[in-house]
Design goal:
Layout: H1 9-29, H2 37-50, H3 55-71, H4 76-96, H5 103-113, H6 131-149, H7 156-173, H8 180-193, H9 198-209
Helix pairs in contact: 2-3, 3-5, 4-5, 6-7, 7-8, 8-9
Length: 210
């Protein structure tokens, strides 16, 4: 099914159920080879490389990562390397079409940058990331997004992620990573480009000055 329609939501759900059943049967036969997480993770890579807009593949990937790292018994350094690789993969995908309105890539981007917030998220890739390291990641992400913004000024997702990252930075060290007036302009752009969420962005604008 997925070979014919790689983004089919029901196909991915069925595959997930089949994999879970196979793993359960494998436990009874040989517990040491029960997990298929590595194979499934590689499968999401192949599906993403064949279609960058495969929301189901990106979503499945995000759900596999915590289990993958746990099974690998990944060290802090290995987790950092893994995060860097995922950011690089995603950046290549985003740069393929910076003005894309495809939300699948941006949802995955949101899941990755959640590692840089002041609160440690459940299933964080690098749960013990130091504040200085988080700020370094945030700075690099903002710089890349600003480069991406040139020629893609109508892509609301770029402004939204710039705002997300700026709020994260402010919560970590009480300073904005760019001029405050720039942050306000990003909110103004979101008000224009995302009118269905006008109330939300007005609330954000009000909170910035309160």
């Amino acid at each position: 099914m997925l070979s014919l329609d790689s983004r089919n939501f029901h196909g991915w759900g069925y595959r997930r159920n089949v994999i879970a059943a196979l793993e359960e049967l494998s436990v009874e036969a040989d517990p040491s080879i029960a997990s298929m997480t590595e194979n499934e993770f590689e499968y999401t890579t192949r599906m993403i490389e064949s279609n960058l807009s495969n929301f189901s593949a990106w979503h499945r990937r995000s759900k596999l990562i915590p289990k993958l790292l746990e099974e690998r018994n990944a060290s802090h350094t290995e987790r950092r390397t893994f995060l860097d690789q995922e950011l690089e993969l995603l950046q290549r995908a985003l740069w393929a079409d910076p003005d894309s309105k495809d939300q699948s890539l941006w949802f995955y981007h949101q899941s990755l940058i959640s590692n840089f917030g002041s609160r440690v998220e459940m299933n964080s890739i690098v749960p013990n990331l130091a504040i200085d390291d988080k700020l370094t990641y945030i700075k690099a992400q903002i710089e890349d997004l600003l480069d991406m913004l040139e020629g893609a000024e109508t892509c609301k997702w770029i402004y939204q992620r710039l705002l997300d990252l700026s709020l994260m930075s402010s919560s970590l060290n009480d300073r904005w990573p760019v001029e405050f007036s720039v942050v306000q302009k990003w909110v103004d752009s979101l008000l224009e480009l995302d009118p269905l969420r006008k109330g939300r962005w007005n609330d954000v604008r009000q909170s910035l000055v309160s």
